[in-house]
TrEMBL record:
One of its GO terms (biological process) is regulation of RNA splicing. The lineage of its organism: Eukaryota, Metazoa, Spiralia, Gnathifera, Rotifera. A zinc finger (C3H1-type) spans 15-43. This is C3H1-type domain-containing protein. Transmembrane segments: none annotated.
Amino acid sequence: MPLIASIANVKDSRWLTLEVCREYQRGKCTRSEQECKFAHPPTHVEVNSGKVIACFDSLK
């Protein structure tokens, strides 16, 4: 039972996951962050498989 209890306490951040703009990654996106439906993360943000986890406050 301890394993099930520890899994239940893990926060699910999948809903905070955003796809990164492929054009932005190539340095060729002509849209602003507000116009593009994909994420434009700063260089210090880790990108995994073309996705980032956004801060909840940034989505408000």
